[in-house]
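Contributing new records

If you add data, match the layout below exactly. Sequence lines come first and carry their own label; structure lines follow with theirs. Keep one chain per record. Anything else will be rejected by the validation script.
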Amino acid sequence: MSEQEHYLSENIVVRDGSMFYEDKLIKRHNWHLKLEELGWDKLHKIWISKLNKLHNLDKFKSKKFVHGTSQSFDFFYLVNHNKRFRIFKGDFMYHQIMFRSGYDWKYIDDEEIKKDDVVIFSIPFSDFGDIHPRTDTVLDRCDELGVPVFIDCAYMVMSRDIEVDFDRKCIQGISFSLSKGFYGAEHLRIGIRFTREDIDDPVDVFNSFEMVSYVSCDIGLKIFQNFETDYLQNKYHEKQIQVCSDLFIEPTNCVIFGITDETHLRFGDYDRGTQRRRVCLSNFIGDMKSLDNPILNWRDK
């Protein structure tokens, strides 16, 4: 290897001032232009879920790398810092932690959405792994008032039977992640943010200057190329159903979750602020053995 050759990952190398991916010369430097040159649109069409129906995502033309979905939330908070944030009870706890920094906020459950609000919530919903029953009502209200909405789709990679139409004028952004779909991916922070067009915010800027993790991008591409979108559901769905039956809880649309209520003897105190009790099944259904005790897998005892 010459002094002019630097490997950014196994497949990405800078050689004599030029960027190569799997020995293919990349003529432009923005990572998402690289993805286009390497067939991003083709990969995207292949990596379509057969178990979920996501309508009109193609109307969001700008696709940018984010270091996990949480980074896309950070910049949505900043852009709307002078507005009141609205979230559902039981949604991702990250929002409430961020709101401690001085943001005005209130639960959607406690008051009707008003004109100067902004809304952020998850699909599938974090608390119970399905579409929140008030989703359409909230989006109708936000369309009516011109209230900006950001949709968190971090759980979509492990879901089934989710149908959503993103063609709502109020929806300004959507983010997806590979963290929940593949063991260890949560440490690589592989996320993508969709917006209708470039909005010249920090996400667009740091992408244009390649301020992203090439290693994460490379591994993300390898996941696209080697696994189906529904890999987790196809592999573990039957096991999820069996484990939920053994635990006397109900399966959710997200393969790693079961659901029960406050009366359950074992899980009744799993309180996330609602009447539901979400139970994580990862240690029961997964292939990864405990590093301390390799007999801990549910079906391997």
